[in-house]
Design a protein that fits this description.
Blueprint lengths: L1 E2 L8 H6 L4 E3 L10 E4 L2 E4 L8 H16 L11 E3 L1
Parallel strand pairs: 1-3, 2-5
Antiparallel strand pairs: 3-4
Length: 83
């Protein structure tokens, strides 16, 4: 099913070049297998999981620390929509 997930314009480049691979939301927008179109590109929701705000904050902290340390990071969480 095709769903709508809103993104701010500042996320256009990261979404299109593949560096933004997950998102967190306060409500569920779709299910695995659903697609959404944003900035004239179609994306597939591969995984949906419930995460606490603390889990999301910790993930962001780890990413920032890795970037500050110059480490290469690869996120296994792809196109996620968290309720």
């Amino acid at each position: 099913m095709k769903v709508t997930i809103p993104f701010k314009p500042r996320f256009k480049a990261p979404l299109i070049n593949g560096t933004k691979t997950w998102t967190s939301r306060t409500k569920r927008y779709g299910n695995p297998g659903d697609t959404f179109e944003v900035f004239d590109q179609e994306f597939l929701i591969e995984k949906v999981e419930r995460r606490t705000l603390g889990d999301v904050a910790e993930s962001i902290k780890q990413i920032r620390e890795a970037l500050l340390n110059g480490e290469e990071i690869h996120l296994a969480i792809l196109k996620e929509d968290t309720p």
